[in-house]
Amino acid sequence: MSQATKISQAIELAAKAHSGQYRKGSSVPYVWHPLSVGKLLEDTGCSSQTIVAGILHDLVEDTSVTIGEITQRFGGEVAEIVQSCSVTDRSMPWEERKKTVIDNLKTARFEVKIVVAADKIDNLRATAADLAKLGDKVWKRFNRGREKQEWYYRNVLVSLREGAGQATDHPLIRTLELEIERVFGMQSPAIAYWGTESGGMPDAAGEKDE
To answer: How many domains are contained in the chain?
Structure first.
């Protein structure tokens, strides 16, 4: 199967699985997000498996598509990346789930780090566009407000730079840093470390999404 065919099939599956879903607080079809992630990966010369995984990265977490289906259609390489990008246990409080993501990213393989970077870049660009139109009330859309969103994104960036040497200087990692600064401004030392240690996170009920 050619690279173009794999990508086309991934787009078709994502469009079908995300049908009826919309970006948070908007009428924009959700499928535009995974397609944008795939385009970011393609533009930086990533492998076809990584691009396909980027297009499919939210399927297991947010639709009825299973890892088994992805493995069958796209192979174990793609399925492994998608699985590593997915958080399926919604029973934990938001802060604990996000800390688990941050911790897991420290030792994640290169391809997972790059897909996550592309995912966060597109999310931040959407947030920046909404902030320009609507101002700070945008933060009310999220399960946690601006301060905790900043904590999460900055610590994701730190984790992406750990371990995998290839990821450290990848264009998407550098772009993510720029997008974080565009949305949140200059880094505050208090935000950089708040909640990264065990017991440092305030209690809260578990909620879906960022």
So the answer is: 2
Confidence of residue 207 (pLDDT cuts 50, 70, 90): very low
> Using CA atoms, how far apart are residues 160 and 105, in angstroms rounded to an integer?
6
pLDDT digits (tens, 9 = 90+) for 122-169: 999 999 999 999 999 999 888 888 999 999 999 999 999 987 566 778
Q: Which range marks the domain in which residue 121 is found?
A: 90-201
Contacts of 136 (CB under 8 A, 6+ apart): 146
Whether 192 maps to a domain, the answer reads yes
The model scores a pTM over 0.90: no
- Which residues make Cβ contacts (< 8 Å) with residue 205, sequence separation at least 6? 93, 94
Amino acid found at 34: P
In single-letter form, the type of residue at position 62 comes to: D
For 25, other C-beta atoms within 10 Å of its C-beta total: 14
Task: Extract the tokens encoding 202.
Answer: 């305030």
